[in-house]
Task: inverse folding
């Protein structure tokens, strides 16, 4: 292996982003600072926001303090809610797409088509949504150190892996990576439309191939092989997208493939306290503070396990 350490940050909504910051701050408190140790950071969906925060140069403790501070509403900003579809309708459609898909590529194309279809209703909120994403990022510029932001081409369902050499603004890359079909509009970059990178994989750990040591923070815990029960509120955004292991896009399969290549892989998922703090709707901003606190406590404990750094 030529490269050293890769940090993989999975999707999981507002709670997942806060939990990841908490974990990173807890690890740093225990002497393992991944903001400095990671040679590559891979971010998907909410993890893309985390990746931009981790690579901003801001110390982990300050990132955590920011999450724990009540948000300040920007003066004069238009607070009218953007267009939306009923959550029950969106998750029912996701369940149907997951159940009908015969391959990973089939699922990704169908989700892209759903996103493009939903733009007829959600499209007017695209500019406002980009502004919201931009406000979450500590820096608008790509970091000097390697970072990959994962999205999916809406028209083809294929992987889009953005980095500083892609010719795409960081804000646009993160906005694309977090564009979940049915809930927010697809994101247009130079005339091409993109959807959430979590449609391909909640974590996309395979993009850390070639790194000797891989640390995966997975807010959804690798879930997604089976749809939630009808009527249940999914605990994570992609839990309703069926991903059989034979497709190779689930976390367990990707981690095992990395190990076969010679990587040492440590996967950190929410413990019982963190799961309780993250609640049943990880997109609810009210989960951020409890999820961050639980992640911080868990991170300090996990440091003893991540011993290869």
Result:
């Amino acid at each position: 292996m030529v490269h050293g350490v890769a940090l993989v940050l999975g999707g999981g909504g507002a709670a997942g982003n806060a939990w990841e910051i908490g974990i990173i701050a807890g690890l740093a408190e225990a002497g393992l600072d991944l903001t400095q140790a990671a040679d590559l950071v891979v971010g998907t969906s909410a993890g893309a926001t985390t990746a931009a925060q981790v690579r901003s140069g801001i110390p982990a403790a300050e990132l955590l303090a920011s999450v724990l501070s009540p948000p300040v509403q920007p003066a004069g900003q238009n607070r009218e809610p953007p267009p939306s579809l009923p959550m029950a309708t969106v998750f029912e459609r996701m369940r149907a797409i997951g159940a009908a898909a015969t391959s990973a590529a089939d699922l990704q194309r169908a989700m892209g088509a759903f996103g493009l279809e939903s733009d007829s209703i959600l499209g007017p909120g695209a500019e406002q949504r980009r502004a919201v994403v931009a406000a979450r990022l500590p820096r608008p510029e790509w970091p000097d150190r390697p970072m990959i932001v994962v999205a999916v081409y809406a028209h083809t369902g294929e992987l889009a892996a953005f980095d500083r050499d892609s010719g795409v603004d960081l804000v646009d890359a993160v906005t694309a990576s977090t564009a979940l079909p049915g809930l927010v509009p697809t994101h247009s970059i130079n005339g091409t439309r993109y959807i959430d990178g979590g449609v391909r994989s909640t974590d996309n750990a395979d993009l850390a191939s070639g790194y000797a040591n891989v640390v995966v923070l997975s807010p959804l815990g690798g879930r997604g092989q089976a749809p939630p029960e009808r009527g249940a509120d999914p605990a994570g955004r992609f839990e309703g997208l069926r991903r059989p292991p034979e497709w190779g896009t689930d976390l367990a399969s990707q981690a095992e493939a990395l190990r076969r290549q010679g990587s040492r892989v440590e996967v950190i998922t929410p413990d019982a306290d963190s799961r309780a703090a993250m609640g049943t709707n990880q997109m609810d901003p009210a989960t951020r503070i409890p999820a961050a606190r639980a992640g911080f406590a868990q991170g300090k404990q996990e440091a003893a396990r991540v011993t290869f750094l």
